[in-house]
What does this fold into?
Amino acid sequence: MRAESNDHYNNTWYQRTAEIESLVLHGLPIKERYEREVNFVLKKGNLNLRPGDKVLDVASGIGEHARLISRRTGADVTATDLSENLINQAKDIDSLQQQTRKDAYHIVGNVNYEVRDMGDLETKKQYKAITCMGTSFMYLGTHEAHCKALSDWHKLLVPGGKLAIQWRNDMRSVAGDFKVDANLSKRTKVSYNPGLDLLRDEDRGDGFYFKYGDQESTQLQPYSDLGKIRKNVFNRIYIDEQGEEHDLGKVQAMDYMKKDAFPILKRMLEEAGFKNIKLVPNEKGDPLSPDGNVRMFAVTAEA
Ligand SMILES: C[S@@+](CC[C@H](N)C(=O)[O-])C[C@H]1O[C@@H](n2cnc3c(N)ncnc32)[C@H](O)[C@@H]1O
It folds into this structure.
C-alpha cells in the first residue's frame, strides 16, 4: 500500500494537482497556504523553537513548511519524504533560490532533505520537535503502522520535545466561496464541479478529479469504544491543458483528520508515550475559517 501511495506522490503531476487543490478547495494560492499553516502551528502549537534547534519534518513534500519553519525560527530542519520526486523538487527549489535570492517564498533556511519513510525511521533521540504538516498523517496503510510511527517519533524527541500534526480539513463546503482571500478571484479563475468532483484552473486550462474506490469504516480494536476510522481509497486524475488525462495512481488514507477522530488519536498518542496532548482548532477570525468552522487543526503533544 505504501508503494502505491508513493507512485501517486512520485508522479510528476502531483504537485500541480496540489496547487489547483489549494486554489479551488482552500481559496488560497499554495504558497500562501503553506505560510498560514506554518504560522498557525508555530503560534498555536507552542513549539518554542530557537536558532539551532533540531526539527524533523516528516512527509515534507517539496519542503515549503520545512523552509518556512527554519526561516521563522532559525531551527535546523530535516525534511523527509518517501517520494524521491518531491524531495528532488525540494532540492531544486533550494538551488534555484541560492542562485537568485529574490523570491521571498523560496528563501532557504537551514534545511536538509532526505528520502525517508515516516513509518520506518531510526529512533535516535535528537529532535526538539517533529512536524507532520498538510494532512500527511494518514498514508501508512494500516492503523498499526500509524501507532508504530508515533511510538518511534516519541523516541526521536528529546524530553519535553514537541510533536505537531497539522491537517488542512476538507473545505469542499466552501468551494466557490473565494472570499477567503478577497483578491484571489480577481487574480485567478477557478471552478469546482461537485458532481464530477472536478477542480479546474480556468486560466491555465488544466484540472483534476478524484476517483474514489471502496471506502470502509474500520472498528479499531482496542478502540471500539471510541468510534470508527474511515479508510479512503482514491486516485487523482490530472487533465492537462490539452485535455489529456493522467492517472496518478491509487492512494489509501486513514481518516484521522476528522475532528471526531480526536479521541482515537489521543489514545494512540498516549500509548506512544506522549503527554499534554491538545487539539488545536482554528479559531473564529482566522483567515482560513471566516465563518468560524474548523477548517484547519493540529494535534500537539509532548515527549
Ligand atoms: C498530502 S501530501 C503533503 C505534502 C506536504 N506536507 C505538503 O503539505 O505539501 C502527503 C505527503 O506524504 C508523503 N508520504 C506518503 N507516504 C509516506 C511515507 N510512508 N513516508 C513519508 N512520506 C510519505 C507523500 O509523498 C506526500 O509528500
Helices lie at 2-10, 14-25, 30-44, 64-73, 84-100, 143-156, 184-187, 262-271. Residues 2, 5, 9, 59-61, 65, 81-83, 86, 117-119, 133-136, 139-140 surround S-adenosylmethionine (CB under 6 Å).
